[in-house]
Each structure stands twice: as structure tokens, then as C-alpha cells.
Amino acid sequence: MLKEIATSSRTRDIIRKHGFTFKKSLGQNFLINSDVLDQIIAAAGLDETRGALEVGPGIGSLTERLAKAAGKVASVEIDRRLIPILEDVLSPYGNVNVVHSDILKTDLQQLWKEQFAGLAGVSVVANLPYYVTTPIIMKLLEERLPLENIVVMVQKEVAQRMAAKPGGKDFGSLSIAVQYYCEPELVCIVPGKAFIPAPNVESAVIKLKRRAEPAVIVSDEAKFFHVVQTSFAQRRKTLANNLAALSGKDRKGELTELLLACDINPERRAETLSLQEFARVCEALIRSGMLV
Fold this sequence. Notes:
single chain, alpha/beta, seven-stranded mixed beta sheet
């Protein structure tokens, strides 16, 4: 019986057999730590009635585990060279479909219909390429997919920013975007030696549990996120100074009064505001006509 893919020896055997060479530009690091896989699968909460969408399966170390835990697995891989490798190593599993595509260009609504019809729920479970982590996460969230969980391996600092609370240096627009849609939970920290090749940074597994409703109710989501992005444009600046880009300098006094009316000190920095406070500011800016 073959060893599982997530071992150093089996991974190296597969790489040698297929003459595979790593592309640094695609951020390819293959997981070889079974304990980390255990924690990923446990966090995802899969069973035979549920599906898993995987992004960047590599040579299939996580895919193999997903196939054993879920009823259906769809793995989206951008690197054409990996497709025959995945077809080879995953041949024992009839519930896996490998899709050659760029996840950022994939019609996810259509993929959902084709791959996951009739399932009780679907989660995204993946070891994400670090160079496109944020665009992938935001695409998954913004497309309003019927997701249960997103359980992903990312660079440790990115995971910390997603889970950060107001008041610290890690809290920013990414924190707010993720927490608007999800409840984040850090699952584990993963050292570089858990991968081939070993990256120069630590990684982390984070679970994002999709909220039934957004964390705050706003009348215009696009404007809400525009206010958040503007507030963090220059982190050292006060909230009032950053938001002056929206109101215009000639309305700076009016903006100050607006923030005070929201019970927010204009001298505060954006990183100290909660999602609820950002929502209050956004709605006040819309009512004032400063935000169009």
C-alpha cells in the first residue's frame, strides 16, 4: 500500500517520477506534514454529504485527505503540468474532479452548479499560493457563494491580519473585509519545514466561518468598504485627515462635527475603530452627501 502523499519520501518520489520542477512565480510549496492535515480536515467539518473546493492542489497531498473526508471534491489548479500528476495520484478516488483553471478567472457560480449540486454544504479547503491569497479570499467572499467554511493555509502574518481585533497594528481593511462576512479562528501555526520546498516564512491555518448575515448592516456595501479603505489609506494619519479625501478640505469642519455626532473622536486612527463604528460613520457620510 502506498504511503500518503503528504510525506517527504512520497512527495519526492512523485516529483522525480514526473520530472516536475517548481515554479517560484506560482508559489508552489507542497505540504508534507500529516499532523497539519489532520487539523485542516478537522476544522473543515466535512462528511460524505458535503463538498470541498480546493484551490491549488499541487500534487494532491491535501486533496487525498479531502477525498476521504468529503462526498465530492473539486480542485482548481492553474499549472497545466500538474494535471497529469494529479490524475495519476488521485486515480483511486472517484469523488475528485480536477479543474484546470485560474481560480480568479473561474465562474464560481457555474462551478458550484456543476460540481456541488445536491450536497448539504460546501467549504473551501486549500493551501493557498501566498502571492494571491487576498484576491482569492475576497473573490470567494464577494461572490456570495453558499459557503459553510473557508479553511486555508496562508502566510502567518496574513492570517493574523484576518483575525486581528481593533486597536493593534495588524487590524486593517483586510480584517474588516473578512470579519464583515466571516468569524475568523486561527487553527495552527505551521513552520517552513512542513513543506517541500521550505518557504522562508511561517504559515498558519485559519478557519473563516461564514456568517448567516454580515457582521453589520449597511445601506451600501461598496460605499462601506470605500470608507474603510480611505480610512486606512495612510495609517499614521487621523481618521478625520484620511476621510477628508472624501469630504474635501472645504468641508473638514463639517466632517469633524459628523464624527463627533457618531461619538467618535476625529483624532482617532482607523485601526482603533470597530466594524460597528465604521458602519455608523459610513451611514452618516451617506446622509450628509459627502459620500456619493
